Amino acid sequence: LAITGTPMENSLYDLWAILDLVAPGLLGTAIGFRKRFTLPIATGEAPQRMEQLRRRIRPFLLRRTKELVAKELPEKHEEVLTVTLSPEHRAVYDSVLQRERKKVLGLIDTDLDRSRFIVFRSLTLLRMMALDPSLVDAEEYADVPSSKLEALFDRLEEVIGDGHRVLLFSQFTTYLDRVAGELSARGIDFAHLDGSTRDRDAAVSGFRDGDAPVFLISLKAGGFGLTLTEADYVFLLDPWWNPAAENQAVDRAHRIGQDRQVMVYRMIAEDTIEEKVLALQRRKAELFDSLTDGGEAFRSAVTAEDLRELLG
Question: Which residues form the Helicase C-terminal domain (predicted)?
Answer without folding.
Answer: 148-312
